[in-house]
Amino acid sequence: MQCDLNCDMGEGIGNDELIMPYITSANIACGYHAGNEETMKQTIVLAKKYNVNIGAHPSFPDRENFGRTEIKISPQEVYELVTNQINVLQRIAADNNALLHHVKPHGALYNMAAKDKALAKAIANAIKGCNENLILYGLSGSYLISEAKAIGLKTANEVFVDRTYQDDGSLTPRSQFNALIQNADDAIHQVLMMVKEGKVKTISGKDIPIIAETICIHGDGEHAVEFAKALNHLLK
User: Is the pTM of this model over 0.85?
Assistant: First the structure.
């Protein structure tokens, strides 16, 4: 089984070129939580160089909090902001002879839509309206996946190498002390369990079922480059 390894890019962290050789898909910030048209172009060029899939990484308009703070917003507003961000990246990609491959919502937008059917539906409709061939990367087993499938979009169930899980399959909120996995061995153990056994151990010690079609490394994580190298080697 070919397992996709994705990473959030173009966020101004400074390690994109170090990570790019080890991943298969890049989620590129579209200017709302990080980045601008110039960084989008640079990241697309870099992805082409390493033959990495190019994806849009739309977010709430919240640079101050890196798109990680929940914002009360209507499904129509979500539809419009996702559409705008995809269109910008799609235009820059076309200018550089590249095609978009997928869309992965960012931060609070991602986590809210995973649990909110109406927001998930708005995101799926926005993606389909921009380009029905795009794949929606969403939290494994969440509304992001089911709502996209319901309108005929292709999906990829996403799991995380550097985040811990709750019993309901959601990610542990970053505000909790045990939200992040910092140790490479722990990260690799979690990925192996998800990919090979189709389950993940939650912070309460339960094993819950999970579908792992794409694996995310956060580019702003302290150990992002180390994890990317280790996982690339492991998955090969």
Answer: yes
